[in-house]
Amino acid sequence: DITFDASGYLSDKKIIKYEWVFGDGTSGNGMRIIHRYKLPGRYEVKLNVTDNAGNKYTTSQFIDIKPSIPTIDNIKAQKKDLLIDGHSDPNTIVYFTIQSQPFEGKGLADEKGYWTFNLENADKVIGEGDHTVNAIAAIKLNDNSELRSQTSKKYDFKLTIDNDKILVEMRRTRIWKIISGILGLVAITFF
After folding, report:
1. Rounded CA gap, 168 and 109, in Å?
2. Using CA atoms, how far apart are residues 21 and 111, in angstroms rounded to an integer?
């Protein structure tokens, strides 16, 4: 949830109406209002105010809503391939890194947020042993830049080779959080 606060809006007249347009097809009224965005993206937030003399003023500001962290729901083997799947915000790009043997891949979350990646010949690409994988979600903006999640989850797994097939055992999950202004309540003040 984000708190939008126009109490600092300066005018020599008394403001009698505050109208917010959030850039996601919704709007609201009030000097201070809480809004929740359903999807990540860059939104232009507009504040329209009217004073007691009937004068109207408008100001705007862009706000970035970062994707939430993707989850890795399953890491499993299929012959010599490693299958990694999970969930994220719908239609986001999910980047992941296997850190023990530097390997990077990506998947695309569908409209329900499900994503999957198939690492062919994992026995040769990353090899046998203990591995750590982390995932980060991103969306492409209109200018082709990306808006990435600030939080990364790390998952440990062990890959062994038995009779020319790989076996995978998921281990404990570690979560590392990077403190971000987007977590919790964020206040945006228009002046």
Report:
1. 23
2. 26
Q: What is the DSSP string of 80-121?
A: TEEEEEEE-STT-EEEEEETTTTEEEEEE--TTSEEEEEETT
Q: pLDDT per residue over 82-130, tens digit each?
A: 999 999 999 999 998 888 778 888 999 999 999 999 999 998 889 889 9
User: How many C-beta atoms lie closer than 10 Å to residue 69's C-beta?
Assistant: 19
- Report d(CA 118, CA 64) in Å as an integer: 31
Contact, 12 vs 40, CB < 8 A?
no
Please give the backbone phi and psi of residue 109, each rounded to the nearest 5 degrees, phi first.
-70, 140
In angstroms, rounded to a whole number, what is the distance separating the alpha carbons of residues 9 and 146? 32
Query: Sign of the C-alpha dihedral, residues 102, 97, 117, 75?
Result: positive
Indicate the residue type of 124.
Answer: K
33 CB contacts (<8 Å, ≥6 apart)? 3, 4, 18, 20
Query: Which residue has 């062919």 as its token pair?
Result: 120
Give the whole-angstrom CA distance, residue 19 versus residue 58.
Answer: 9
pLDDT number for residue 115: 94
Category of 84 on φ-ψ map: left (φ > 0), alpha (ψ -120 to 50) or beta: beta
